[in-house]
Amino acid sequence: MAETLRLAVAVIGNVASVSLYAAPIVTFKRVIRKKSTEEFSCIPYTIGLLNCLLFTWYGLPIVSNKWENFPLVTVNGVGIVLELAYVLIYFWYSSSKGKVKVAMIAIPILLVFCAIALASAFAFPDHSHRKQLVGSVGLGVSIAMYASPLVVMKKVIQTKSVEFMPLPLSLCSFLASVLWLTYGLLIRDIFVAGPSVIGTPLGILQLVLHCKYWKRKVVIEEPNKVDLPKLVSLENLDLEKGGLEKGNLEKNVTTS
């Protein structure tokens, strides 16, 4: 019965997590359509990539005992493909300054993963110590991944708009956090359950912000395009007739 429950939670957790990783597809369709990254941040996707790399490695038999953490491999393997695609799309449509920023974040992340993978594979002789190394780093990265939307939440509060914090992403983040917290407690693995202790309340906070600001959008006011022709025509009239005084011109602009 306990094994069946763990398997059920793992399967549902996989579905929720894949949905979480796939949720930004809507955002990046907009990026591709507008050929601009606008106000979206690359930080959640680069940290998400490192998180997926670490937990895929954590679930493999090199680190874990045989395939005891196989559900982590399946979901995070999909996550690697999607998060890498997001980072590459973001890089492609960024400004020159944005490209430098993405490179400065992504390259160190890949180097950190390579260092952790090599150290865990060759510096530690048993699975227990390997899990502690990879799991500890993965725990810290996962907490950072769940905390990274704080940057976006700050912008939401400042602009009073959730335009740049998509609801599908927030909802899937909350569901995945709750499910992996449950799964981690069932298998008694702090490295699996730990990140969701932070992720669950942050997911709730994002949903609260959506409830508060979902009707509001960032509005950029454009100059009135109707007044300019009126002003130009009056100026032309002044030049042609030469009889309109400045006061009359201002009066006509006001009354037009």
From TrEMBL:
Keywords: Membrane, Repeat, Sugar transport, Transmembrane, Transmembrane helix, Transport. Pfam families: MtN3_slv. InterPro entries: SWEET (IPR047664), SWEET_rpt (IPR004316). The chain crosses the membrane at residues 6-28, 40-60, 72-93, 100-121, 133-152, 164-184, 190-209. It is found in: Cell membrane; Endomembrane system. It is a multi-pass membrane protein. One of its GO terms (molecular function) is sugar transmembrane transporter activity. It comes from the Eukaryota. GO terms for biological process: carbohydrate transport; protein homooligomerization. One of its GO terms (cellular component) is endomembrane system. Belongs to the SWEET sugar transporter family. Mediates both low-affinity uptake and efflux of sugar across the membrane. This is Bidirectional sugar transporter SWEET. The lineage of its organism: Eukaryota, Viridiplantae, Streptophyta, Embryophyta, Tracheophyta.
